[in-house]
Design goal:
heterotetramer; A: about 450 residues; Aspartate Aminotransferase, domain 1; Aspartate Aminotransferase, domain 2; 2 domains; seven-stranded mixed beta sheet; four-stranded antiparallel beta sheet; 13 helices; 15 strands; about 35% helix; globular; B: about 500 residues; alpha/beta; 3 domains; binds pyridoxal-5'-phosphate
Chain lengths: ~450, ~500, ~450, ~500
């Protein structure tokens, strides 16, 4: 019996210890009309061989396209060691380290992860992960509402240049708590959130402003100025950052005079394969003063009875198994395994490797911009300093072009005028968001350029 | 030793990344980082050695019996891992056009269908990333449903006191107030108390069945009727679905919305804390409110059947999206593969043998003098031993038993949950454990009982054989040390 | 520096401890005209990303054909757990267990392996592995020469129905020791080694006879009769067996009245992927009385000072680091990791799983024979009881047909009239040796039949 | 516990294989097996748990410093494993036609070329499956060469007394008699003895350079001339190639034939005892005798360059084949990938830093009072400490030191080899270890020295922290227990 080790003899012995005749007796308390006879849509079981064949065919169906798509999920090189170690049974099949003494592996690793994220963001502390980047923004908003004692408004400024699905998800999660998300427009020429759009709120009671660096268009925002303006107005700053970019770009802890209050983002670029959107993980870092309002698990370093260093889950009073309806969040199972991968990934790359990767992405993107904008019918939309992503306007409908190239196994980018998750940017008609990571070397870019030129003819 | 302590300035594992790139000149300096982040600088060998050795400090299913009640720590078939990690799946961009995605979407569609079938629901959305997010989606749907009916005065969610903490926490996040319903000593909900609590202010009731007390809620149909009659909806916390898989279905019991922790019932790995999946199923009347995306079958002009994503256009009443893409896709693939391996017949066995194992252990422990919290009923797939007598007479706690179990090579059961049973051990063996392992665990508890009687202090200081012994949790919370830094260490 | 962790500071410090100025000083004793300036054919190093790209392209070039080829390497299903566990660093990166106390993992596993092989072959003992099946035959011949005290001739009977490359390899290895391999013909109708061919040697001083079950043509030999005949004539029996088949077929330890003396073969069907021919492993089992003549490492169970069970390398007096020029063999590094995989593989399949697999292979092969011989231009050559491999005669040159099908990604089989490793079987012109394992389900067979029918038109 | 002790009759991991097949009726009963073989019957979970836990009882490079002299236990880059295991490589049948094999063959061809380059040889065959089989191929070629020249009276192979046991064992297998040549205290070969030994009966000399004593043979050119002048050939045992990689080449020293242990110098994993590879390189005059197969470049009519296998037709003088196909292909792929990662520059660093590490450790150990076997020369990539003083004065042996090292978290160096140095530790750190690890190891030896002085008995009973302490090897060899059986246990 698949995954059930019982032999006939053992079953008999066990039933006799319980004092019953058949396993069915154990379900005697259940009203018999509730018992089902069988299942209709679950086919008969396959063995490993059969399921191998099935899944190999399925995976082959989707092919392996050359990916110039980003928009929140990035095709990076992941060192082979990362998942070979991550999928070791001891990491893969353990659970939340409730028994600290028997879980020092996961606990120490998580402490190291927190240390790395704090270093990368230049923030004081990190939690042990949230679900993903989008839901991390929602948690950050809730946290800001809990912690910004100077604000009562529950109003949050959210630039339209933030990944629109992050905004949607945040709204799904926070709207039940009377929190209002207020759109902030972007500049049609630069693609940045202009100070002018923010300054309209000067003096108002605003709880927090979200700043995305780079923003959804790949454009770099004036994060220092925005942070200073926000803090002058008692507005919390929630930084939404690509963690890989932080090896190159100014970290949120150093934005403006005082740094962001909370920094969140998606950890995917640090060791998680694109894999259809998950599992990734959301990271969250904050100032030390806010740590007791942080959602999610946190690992702390302490000592044992003999004074040896050891690690435990700490500040659990924030969590739902203690505080129940008053918890900082309902999150329980988090994204531990991806955090494991990410920690190993960061160790293998180190500060220099991450920086070199970030620069490679940047250089490839610049090369791509050069090659693509040389094509008739391709125009650069925002000519601004950027990080690894860019908006291009095509002379034909974006959806058609994307489909044509998809048939050649090239993912040409994200259609900014599409209806996912809602009509995002009607003003960016025929525009696509394109990304080149370190993996998209010149050869790939040439291929892309040739196919695009052909399609636009 | 921390990875940072293996670090040396300038040491690099160069093979992992590009080298020799110059700083870009097209980014303004004020936007650039000034100092390199304090990440470790180690060789590949050091990293491999550090994280390999570190892993050995974990208990895990692949190394130990792990009867953590409510968490369903069953075997994670290795083939689920290798097939979910096929390059074709790993390299699929989440926004890849449909024509490059039919293989993946076929899996997701069939997973939705199979989950509907085993739970008796009309529709499933796979997007929630863990049980708690599934709960959020469910309770948000309950709210959306009432709102759509103009029924906006329903401000309360009822939650039995045996419920997991995520239930009340979720209700709060969705803007409801929580009303607790007591449980009877029999393990059933106090229906009289429920009757008193239910009313026009009731949005819904969240229930786990079998409950976290390890028994089946016998009055479930009456409860459903009570809540439904009052205009409320029933939420099923699917954490314990393993107990009844293939035998009975939440949909048939009257539940309107359920989540299933795929990492429990469908055996995706727990990963040292996650990722999980809290796929959410609904009865017909809640279908319009399902979170997106959902995969639908469609007909392509040329190539026959195909699949497409449902979006806000198709489902204008949807509660929305819960994640940037579609949740923990890799976890979903593992659950899909597991279900295909088991098939219909295998599902039924899960429920049966999980239940057999729990009842066998309970019978053995009772025979050896341990006190079951609910002694005269069959257990579901888990059961509770209460050590309140030991606490009183010998001054040893459930925690002491738990720590000593580690020395004997067993992960401890869940302790101190559910909250209403004092000094409890919530024991869930799962169907994948062999009888000899269950026997070994029973013997270990018997041995610890004897040790407790002979020398309680010995237990207070357990464990002895782990990399560390009991850790100072108070110090951890008071002298917060949450991140290493070069200056501090 | 790739895989060299030294920082500049450390290098300086180390040099100063040694008391020299530069690393080059350490090579001062070497005549300077021997020092090279650089390398010509070794290109500049690639990083992981670059080498990934290279190797992925290379692997893709070879495609993944549907394999009906056997001839010593078989396409079997390997449970996912096998190599996931085998490649754990603790197995993968350890070496020969010279320090027993720190190598109980590998030692106990090897003891379990020996136990499983002894059970599978029904022989008394097994060693810890030899290089592969072919060289194991050579080692068995040398061992027979050492141990058959009743024979002085150094003559070995080798049926032509043995895998011809095994014969070639054996000859390469044993010929320096004045050992003579004598061909024994096969019956042109049955494909078996006829008793009549052997009985010609009755009464002669022959050291050993090699018997292959199934033989190279897939045909089952009369192993019982041959064994009895050999033993009556003081001839040692060296059984060459497919270990998977032993779940179904009579094991060598039970051949005839007394069983084979030595059983060898290639372990590939028990968990090693085809992977271009290796690493596989050779196994060797023998009667207890011969164990001191067995080549290769052997693990024994013993106890420690406290009486706890433990495992050590034993009978090392046979080995070359003790006996040097008088050792039973020169083998040192063996095929440990593949043995690890194989041990896990056997544990996962168990006796019933192995038997079911063997029967599946047999059934698929029978189905394939039925479908293929129904094609015009395909004839069955030996109509005899067989195991999972069969000889078919085509109406056109085998090489052409094999090439045609190879272009369609079907490996149609092994050309028996080819010149690898020498003109094997001139009498089997236009004949191919075809195999269907448990993986070649009806769908594959239909595809093969259709392509073959088309090619033969 | 043995895997067999987890077994229960009738327990199966059914998912792994087909089920329900009936016994075939077309095979005569007398050819069928009567009783099922005594293999374990366990669940997947039990197997996974058993072999995962068992692995943790091993020291390995991925977990410990492993300075096993002569074995070059360096880091095994993880990417070599994952790329060599790409499905396209794993599923390639060894006899697949050339058109389905060009990717693999390109790798093998380039590997041959790169090995020629780093060793200074004219041709390479990749087929030998370990160093010892490479030696066999080499000595067989020496024999074939003399035979081809009608020079059939050359019956002797000369081997220095410091040689590895495989050298003399191989010479015997090839039908030669072995003559030992003594080594001088300086570590160099005794050339006078060599002069006396060499003659018309000399087929060849087998030499390791740097030798197993950890020093470079300074008279190599004189030795080569002596042997060549006498009509013999020079065999290079490449076990220590790591010491000189990218710096000097055996071909330039005058060697005619060499093997390279790819699992040492080129970092394929040692796998708990193998597989390895003993690829064999030859000077021009031995090319016709190379073992098959070898990959050659060819020109295809249409598609430009391609690769094909050389067979007996191309190479009628070949000594033949050593394995059914082409040796340990997967090992060869790993070596190929490693070489591509390192590149020319990386190769040079290997030799340099392996040597730096060894000399640094030797200097530190000498400074701390340990006696180097060859104290006044630079070490190669390894060096020898002799504990003969400790043995005499304190009655603690090299074995005692080795066992105690395990307790301190280090795998022991090679002990009692080479045979001519009493109570020796042959220490090879390799280039991949960081300075701090070398320092830690030195401190450990110092600590053990102190323990030996304080309480020698304490060392005699080490190790203390391993799963077992010293095992009864005599009993193992006398009361042979080589296989478990149900009856016995
Ligand atoms: C009864 C119960 N409900 C809900 C949850 C929450 O599920 P998750 O941890 O997947 O968010 C758990 C998890 O442990 C649980 O045991
Ligand atoms: C010096 C020397 N020569 C030869 C060999 C034999 O090589 P292999 O073990 O690969 O057969 C070794 C192996 O340890 C060795 O150290």
């Amino acid at each position: 019996m698949p995954f059930v080790p019982h032999t006939e003899d053992e079953i008999k012995e066990m039933l006799s210890v319980i004092g019953i005749d058949s396993i069915d007796n154990l379900f005697d308390e259940i009203p018999s009309h509730l018992k089902i006879q069988g299942l209709e849509k679950v086919p008969a079981g396959l063995n490993e061989m059969g399921v191998n064949r099935l899944m190999q065919n399925r995976a082959a169906e989707d092919g392996q396209a050359i990916c110039f798509m980003g928009a929140g999920a990035y095709d990076h090189h992941i060192p082979a060691a990362v998942w070979q170690i991550t999928t070791r049974g001891e990491y893969y099949t353990a659970y939340t380290p409730y028994q600290a003494e028997a879980s020092q592996g996961t606990l120490q690793l998580t402490y190291e992860y927190q240390s790395m994220m704090a270093a990368l963001t230049a923030m004081d502390v990190s939690n042990a992960s949230l679900y993903d980047g989008a839901s991390a923004v929602a948690e950050a908003v809730l946290m800001a509402v809990r912690s910004n004692r100077k604000s009562k408004s529950r109003k949050i400024l959210v630039p339209r240049s933030l990944n629109p699905v992050y905004t949607t998800v945040t709204n799904t999660i926070v709207k039940h708590q009377n929190i209002e998300l207020i759109d902030v427009a972007f500049d049609g020429v630069t693609g940045k959130t202009p100070m002018s759009a923010l300054e309209g709120f000067t003096g108002e009671d605003i709880t927090a402003v979200v700043i995305s660096q780079p923003n959804f268009f790949g454009t770099l925002e004036d994060v220092g100025k925005i942070t200073n303006w926000a803090h002058e107005n008692n507005i919390f700053v929630i930084a939404v950052v690509n963690p890989l970019s932080l090896a190159l770009l100014k970290p949120p802890g150093q934005w403006g005079e005082t740094g962001a209050d909370i920094a969140v983002g998606d950890g995917q670029p640090l060791g998680a394969p694109m894999s259809s959107g998950g599992p990734y993980y959301g990271f969250m870092c904050c100032k030390k003063t806010l740590v007791r309002q942080m959602p999610g698990r946190i690992v702390g370093r302490t000592v044992d009875q003999q004074g040896r260093e050891g690690f435990v889950l700490t500040l659990q009073a924030r969590e739902q198994h203690i505080r129940r309806s008053k918890a900082t969040s309902n999150i329980c199972t988090n994204q531990g395994l991806v955090v494991t991968a990410s920690t190993i990934h960061m160790s293998l790359l180190g500060p220099e490797g991450l920086k070199q990767t970030a620069i490679s992405c940047h250089q490839n993107t610049q090369l791509m911009v050069e090659k693509l904008t040389a094509i008739d019918g391709v125009d650069l939309v925002f000519d601004q300093p950027r990080f690894h992503e860019v908006v291009l306007r095509l002379s034909k409908p974006a959806a058609d072009i994307i489909n044509t190239l998809a048939d050649q196994n090239i993912l040409a980018g994200y259609d900014l005028s599409n209806d996912y998750p809602a009509q995002d940017y009607p003003e960016l008609e025929n525009c696509i968001l394109v990304c080149a990571t370190e993996l998209r070397v010149a050869e790939d870019i040439e291929l892309f350029a040739a196919a695009l030129a052909e399609a636009l003819k | 030793m921390l990875i940072f302590e293996h670090s040396a300035k300038g040491r690099q594992t160069k093979i992992q990344a590009a080298t020799g790139n110059k700083m870009p000149t097209d980014i303004p300096v004020e936007l650039l980082r000034e100092e390199a982040p304090g990440l470790p600088e180690v060789s590949e060998m050091q990293a491999v050695r550090h994280y390999t050795s570190l892993s050995q400090k974990n208990f895990s299913i692949d190394t130990h019996f792990y009867p953590l009640g409510s968490c369903t720590m069953k075997h994670n078939p290795r083939v689920c891992n290798s097939l979910a990690m096929l390059p074709g799946f790993l390299s699929r961009h989440p926004l890849a056009p449909d024509q490059n995605s039919q293989g993946f979407m076929a899996c997701m569609y069939e997973l939705q269908e199979m989950l509907c079938d085993v739970t008796g629901m009309a529709g499933f959305s796979l997007t929630p990333m863990a049980g708690a997010q599934g709960e959020f989606a469910g309770v948000a749907m309950i709210r959306a449903y009432h709102d759509a009916n103009g029924d906006t005065e329903r401000k309360e969610i009822l939650v039995p006191d045996a419920a997991h903490g995520t239930n009340p926490a979720t209700a709060t996040m969705c803007g409801f107030t929580v009303k607790e319903i007591p449980t009877l000593p029999s393990g059933d909900v106090d229906v009289d108390a429920l009757k008193a609590a239910v009313g026009p202010q009731t949005a819904g009731l969240m229930l786990t069945n079998p409950s976290t007390l390890g028994v089946f809620e016998r009055q479930i149909e009456e409860i459903a009727k009570l809540v439904h009659d009052a205009g409320g909806l029933l939420y099923y916390d699917g954490a314990n679905l393993n107990a009844i898989l293939g035998k009975i279905r939440p949909g048939d019991m009257g539940f309107d919305v359920i989540h299933s922790n795929l990492h429990k019932t469908f055996s995706t790995p727990h990963g040292g804390g996650g990722p999980g999946s809290g796929a959410i199923g609904v009865a017909e009347r809640l279908k319009p409110f399902m979170p997106l995306p959902v995969v639908a079958k469609t007909e392509f002009e040329k190539e026959g059947d195909g699949y497409r994503w449902l979006t806000e256009k198709d489902c204008p009443q949807s509660i929305g999206r819960m994640s940037a893409f579609m949740g923990n896709a890799g976890v979903l693939l593992r659950a899909y593969i597991y279900m295909r391996l088991l098939g219909a017949e295998g599902m039924r066995r899960v429920g049966e043998f999980a239940t057999l194992n729990a009842n066998y252990m309970m019978a053995q422990l009772k025979a050896r003098g341990f006190e079951a919290a609910i002694p005269d009923r069959y257990a579901s797939h888990e059961f509770i031993i209460t050590l309140k007598k030991q606490a009183k007479e010998l001054n040893v706690s459930a925690m002491d038993f738990a720590k000593r179990l580690l020395d004997l090579g067993y992960h401890a059961p869940t302790t101190y949950f559910p909250l209403l049973i004092p000094e409890c051990l919530l024991i869930e063996p799962t169907e994948s454990e062999a009888k000899e392992m269950l026997d070994g665990f029973v013997e270990a508890l018997v041995q610890i009982q004897q040790e407790a009687e002979a020398d309680p202090d010995m237990l207070h200081n357990a464990p002895y054989t782990m990399p560390v012994n009991r850790l100072d949790e108070v110090r951890a919370a008071k002298q917060l040390d949450l991140a290493w830094s070069a200056e501090k260490d």
